[in-house]
Amino acid sequence: MHLSTRGRNVPPSPIRKLVPFADEAKKRGVVVHHLNIGQPDVPTPEVFFERVGSFREKVLAYGHSAGSLPLRQGMAAYYRRLGYPVGDEHVTVTTGGSEAILFSMMAICDPGDEIVCFEPFYTNYNSFAVQAGVTLRPVRCSPDDGYHLPPRAAIEAAIGPRTRALLICTPNNPTGTVLRRDEMQTLVDLAIAKDLFLVSDEAYREFVYGEVPHTSVLAFPELGGRAILLDSLSKRYSVCGARIGCVVSSDPELQRSFLHLGQARLCSPSLEQHGALGLLPIEGDYFQSTQAEYHRRRDAVMRGLAAIPGASARTPEGAFYVMARLPVDDAGRFCEWLLREFQLDGETVMLAPGDGFYATPGLGRDEVRIAYVLEVAHLERAMRCLREGLAAYAKR
Amino acid sequence: MHLSTRGRNVPPSPIRKLVPFADEAKKRGVVVHHLNIGQPDVPTPEVFFERVGSFREKVLAYGHSAGSLPLRQGMAAYYRRLGYPVGDEHVTVTTGGSEAILFSMMAICDPGDEIVCFEPFYTNYNSFAVQAGVTLRPVRCSPDDGYHLPPRAAIEAAIGPRTRALLICTPNNPTGTVLRRDEMQTLVDLAIAKDLFLVSDEAYREFVYGEVPHTSVLAFPELGGRAILLDSLSKRYSVCGARIGCVVSSDPELQRSFLHLGQARLCSPSLEQHGALGLLPIEGDYFQSTQAEYHRRRDAVMRGLAAIPGASARTPEGAFYVMARLPVDDAGRFCEWLLREFQLDGETVMLAPGDGFYATPGLGRDEVRIAYVLEVAHLERAMRCLREGLAAYAKR
User: Fold this and answer.
1) Buried b / exposed e along A5-42 (16+ C-beta atoms within 10 A)
2) Interface test with B, best of A110, A266, A273, A373 (most B CBs within 10 A)
3) Which of A101, A171, B51, B318 shows the smallest number of beta carbons within 10 Å?
């Protein structure tokens, strides 16, 4: 009687594995600045709680396996406002963007099939790939290029006979990179030439700060059913705990597969779907003020990094993450040390070690992912902790 | 560019696949009595909505990947009240009992491994097995034995070198059978002798009407880490839409694997976990009155079946389902006909075709699953629709 190889191979989250040390630090009375996880502190819009409170059914019943129709309609309307021709029949509501990842891998890959992705990448792609028996083929993006795509030939070299899809994330977690339209076009051309799906995780669509506008996979009609959009309400409306996301595809066969996958787990949470309905009409002003706030935060983190001898990072164009190189040989050990042994005026900082965002062994060992999800004053104190922590760590 | 074999093989839910015909019937003004799905009409306890309404955090944030600590503690306390030595470290909160099924299959099976189950079985075991690349080896239980277990030798014959677990459901969906203690002991002995997990889905634990008490997998300390309990709050407290369940195991390695699977999808819905906390102290009176109500309903359905020429069913001991044999050669076609072509005084009935609950082709074609989840007056009208429908169907 023992676990499966798969059961052992699902990796711990690099974002969460240091949590026990953070908990111990808090028990000792140390304030921990959480820059390890993409949990925004932006208040959840009141309308969400109001709608939840207005739920008047006597029974909290199962909903439709593809999501409630009004929610699918609301999601489709959101995409149409952005200029993409999405109908509610193209949307399957998922239990968080997480399930959108799992459903798409399950529907397009058999065990042993491959997906080309770009490292560093959102670490949980790897967890879901292990679950689905899918092999991720990472193509390396370099900090020297701002983690933008390498030349087409480098991507092509990773595509083999069992490759079923290209998987991207734009704006990117963990790098903050926003793919330019010409980069997207390269991927679109490759997907068509090589008979692949182009799976695009756009959970951070509304978080773009630079001059590079966001380009969605939905902006390329020539992709047809090859385009699979993974999305989430978690970051866009600061409702991470609601577990509401979606997968968008115009392919009826794929939608049927998503429906059957959805029927297996019956439905996404009903009450939180009901609440989410109130979020979808939110537009313009809300996103602009949120963007402006994250823009300030990004700049605060970049200023903090610039003041650290030996640290380096390029300025991210979107999302709310930055990958930074630190003058340490093992960032994981340093992050643990920050929680277990360091404090500055009763405070310390929690970061996500970089190697967890790479599939290739050895990469990312001197990197950390910083999530700038706190207000500027806290970020400034967190970055001071990082600077002084590095100095103390070097002197041990 | 095409779906995976897996993507095509995840079956549609036999419980839900006739929904489009039901929707059309409703559009024509026909009242559809839903006996197809285990969606109780029992009101969700007010305390759930009160707690949800009292949520006062400004941000609906991610929770712990294993579930909120108070919820795990509350679940453990519930099991201890039943007499089982469960600590909160033995409980992982899952997004519905559905996810408990998926997590357990993922953690104990590699693709190609096998699980022995007992048919007819909860149809979604099959959907999750397809997702996890697991082969279900069905052992047939006969209506003539009240769907109780066949002799030990028949079970042993299904166990092969790749078998990793025995999977049971007690009280059973779809048969309502409650396994006796001696049957459970046979399974326990087999699991130990053959080095297998014993995975027990006990979502209907609190719904037992006969003289056979429910025996949990947790009642056998000799199983140690071989015991895996799958559970759900959905039916117990009529909160199907909340998507809160759990998986219980005393094996730390298995719990670690559940944690990592949980980290991949971040967390179960936060607000509904918060609401569920209010449900766990509910005891005695609530379950007794719910049981008494379902007992009456069961008896109403059995009376209705007894009045139908050529129909037969044994009286189920628990849950809220009965598998009934009908005098038709293709129950699926008959169920569709009931929705598309039949009505009695503007009403009809929706049932789940039986073959979807079997893995062996050809079995269950003259059976339906009836969920007695409506009040007695509605059940009586639904059974009248079934009786008159069968008579009209025979005369077509």
Assistant:
1) ebbebbbbbbbbbbbebbeebeeeebbbbbbbbbbbeb
2) A266
3) B51
Pick among B4, B166, B192 to test the A interface (most A CBs inside 10 A): B4
Sorting pLDDT into bands at 50, 70 and 90, what band is B56? confident
For residue B246, give every residue at least 6 positions away whose Cβ sits within 8 Å of its Cβ, in sequence order, or none: B67, B72, B75, B91, B92, B93, B94, B100, B231, B232
Q: Given CB atoms, is B238 within the 8 Å cutoff of chain A?
A: yes
CA distance A105 to chain B (A): 9
The pLDDT of B378-394, averaged and rounded, is 97
Residue with tokens 């991207």: A168
Residue B360: predicted pLDDT: 92
CATH topology classification for A5-43+284-395: Aspartate Aminotransferase, domain 1 (3.90.1150)
A1 pLDDT more than 70: no
Q: Which residue has the tokens 């935060």?
A: A297
Q: Tell me which chain A residues have a C-beta less than 8 angstroms from the C-beta of B20.
A: none
ipTM comes to 0.95
Q: What residue spans in chain A does CATH classification 3.40.640.10 cover?
A: 46-276
CA distances from B267 to A161, A353, B65, B218 (A): 35, 21, 4, 26
CATH number given to A46-276? 3.40.640.10
User: Does a cis peptide bond (omega within 30 degrees of 0) precede residue B120?
Assistant: yes
pTM (whole model) above 0.80: yes
pLDDT in tens, A319-355: 999 999 999 999 999 999 999 999 999 999 999 999 9
pLDDT of residue A304 exceeding 90: yes
The size of the A-B interface in CB pairs under 8 A is: 237
Q: What is the pLDDT of residues A97-116, one digit of tens each?
A: 999 999 999 999 999 999 99
d(CA A353, CA A364): 8
**Distance (Å) from the alpha carbon of B145 to chain A's nearest alpha carbon:** 29
pLDDT on residue B377: 97
- Nearest to A128, CA basis, from A9, A252, A275, A291: A9
* A344 contacts A388 by C-beta, under 8 angstroms: yes
Residue B226 is classified by DSSP as G
Fold exhibited by the domain B47-276: Aspartate Aminotransferase; domain 2 (3.40.640)
